[in-house]
């Protein structure tokens, strides 16, 4: 039996039907189709189960307005939706911002790649790789340098 089916089945058994329909409507209100959400659900059942309506809305607004990422791209990589924006995504954005500012990576990097990898992989690729030449990446990853956006003056040192 496919483990994805089992995970989806568990969510469908635990979550009330009205809640699932309400969350589908919430995703739809952001311009996402039912088929996009269904595909994402098969990969990451938490998008309809574990996340609250408020969390879904806050995260979608952050990716859409804060990071300027098309939500169709976000829903295609649903593993990032359950991630904590404050504990996971913002520190990664701070690291990427420092690397962009210093010219270590291009400004037009596809953000969902680095944001969607495992913690170990991100740390190896973007923190440990540059920590000797650029100690600010460690400070950014520890959230001692706050992310303020991907522009010329995009960091705030704490």
TrEMBL record:
Write the record's keywords in alphabetical order, separated by commas. Answer: Transcription, Transcription regulation, Transcription termination, Transit peptide
Biological process, per Gene Ontology:
DNA-templated transcription termination
Q: Name one GO molecular function term.
A: nucleic acid binding
Q: Which Gene3D superfamilies match?
A: Transcription termination factor 3, mitochondrial
Q: Which residues form a coiled coil?
A: none
- Would the keyword Transcription be found if you checked this record's keyword annotation? yes
Q: Which domain of life is it from?
A: Eukaryota
Q: Does the keyword Magnesium apply?
A: no
Family the entry assigns: Belongs to the mTERF family.
Q: What is this protein called?
A: Uncharacterized protein
Organism equals Dichanthelium oligosanthes
